[in-house]
Amino acid sequence: MPEFRSISDALNRIEEGDWSAIREALASRPGAWRVALAGPPGVGKSTIIDSVGSYLVRGGHSVAVLAIDPSSPRSGGALLGDRIRMRRLEREGQFIRSMTSPGSRPRLWILAYAAIKLLASSGFDYVFVESIGGGQLDFELAYFSDTFVYVTVPGLGDEIQVMKAGAAELADIIVVNKRDVAYTGALAELYRRYVQERNGWLPRVLEFTSFCPSDVEALTEAIGEHRRHVEEHPKAAEDRRLTAIELLALGVAGQGLDRWKYTALEGDTKGLSDLELLDDALSSIGIKRPWE
Amino acid sequence: MVAKLGLDGHDRGAKVLARGLMEEGFQVIYTGIRKTPEQVAEAALQEGVSAVLVSILSGSHMYLVPRLLEELRKRGLGDLPVLVGGIIPPDDARKLKEMGVLEVFGPGSFIKDTAQFLRRILNA
Known about the structure:
A: 7-stranded parallel sheet, B: Rossmann fold, 4-stranded parallel sheet
């Protein structure tokens, strides 16, 4: 198990926007499989992380959690309550960290990405990232993770909501949660109708409740299946990583890139770290590196 | 971090405080109820917090708070400011402060005062 104090201190530096800490995280190689969960507030993201995470722990794996909550647009403060749902992971001595970021979303992208990278290179087997709970708009984490899970529940709207653009389009797995208290079949069927195959992967749609051990097992298995698929399709994973770098560059530079990703994808980027790629992306539009 | 220690499940005060401090601009992590001193100290370490505010209404503060201070010290967090609130008799409040608790806030305390106290000790 990694040493928690030094991880916690490094996360504090990242949260303060310390570029040397961010730089170090970006230069690192992720060893952990990164699973991000997005979806509206209250759909069960934290509880799913607790159930799937503790299932993995029982299988001998170590788990870290980064739970992002919104900050108040009025005061800049925040109330971080995701930890409360992760009682089993807490009891089993896993690492749980809450994060918030007053300020712009692009700034949050950089801090969150660096925090995810730091955890992913600290010796954990799995890093779970919980999104801010914005729902449809919460798609950046799809690019900051290896497996992106969209969580929703019945009762939030009709077929038109399922058809709309947003985070669900990027999901590798869609979880229709709370089947213990609501009828999830119809909504799951709608999602199955609209999911599309991307790079040979048809997004899985699961009816789910964290209270049912076989559901927890099925979701863990779906994550594992997606992992095997990604490992067999490295080009798609690289496309995802370069999109993340584009978002980071936008966050640093305040302006978009001009076809940088397409040029980069034509070459072989696999050997380059995130830091080297961000450096390349920024210099393609003549922006100075913030860490110098 | 706002924390509830022991079997005490009365957390209206902790919730009001957590929400009030958020409105004052603080980033507040609420642990939820029924945490052990080890869990609270470990959460403080993982979360990298600047202060721990403990709410206790069960009367077991003289048992739980010293253990929390000990668990924090074990993790190298002996300097972390610890504040206690809830139903604490004045004699106990004095003893807790002697043990290392920075301040005790009883019933009738105003959140603005707690916020001001925190800003002063944290230079925030």
